[in-house]
Specification:
It contains 3 helices and 2 strands, in the order αααββ. By secondary structure, the protein is mainly α. Strands 1-2 form a two-stranded antiparallel ribbon. Helix 1 (3-19) packs across helix 2 (33-51) and helix 1 (3-19) packs across helix 3.
Length: 117
Amino acid sequence: MSYLEQFMQQWKMYLKKHLSHCGLSYVETGSGDKFDIKANSLAYFRSLRTASTSIVGMDDSRDELAWAMLVKQLSALANKAEIGTSNLVAKLHIEETQIQITLNFSYDNEQHIVYVS
């Protein structure tokens, strides 16, 4: 599994946990993880946006932007992970499976985006 796929799975777990706080549940359509993760993410972003009193004048297009920014962050981190893992394996003489990367997600309710670290 690629790092991007692993990171998307971590986001999926985050979504499953946090959707319930919004009164929603994670919906699986059978169309595949990629589609389901995006659809559930957009539902989550919509819920956060409509529940926030600090967000004024943002519409559904902002949810799409939040999704696009999240994917870009995950892709960039996946690229760094690929390079970093190769370096660690070569220098420390360990197996790639011994390296675990865990991401943290934080929602910024003023900008209506998710930061990944």
